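Standup notes
- DV: blocked on the single-chain target, sequence here:
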Amino acid sequence: MEELLVQIGNVGFPIVLSMYLLMRVEGKMEHLAESILKLTAVLEKRI
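- DV (later): unblocked, structure below
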């Protein structure tokens, strides 16, 4: 938590907020990619 406050002081709130949101979106994108791969495998079995 201390490191987060130091970063906010150094680079500014908008940059820290953007980095936080990008990290959250990255995790969701990875989950979405896995789901698409599973869906593709299921569809290939049906054909």
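- Follow-up: The radius of gyration is 18 Å.
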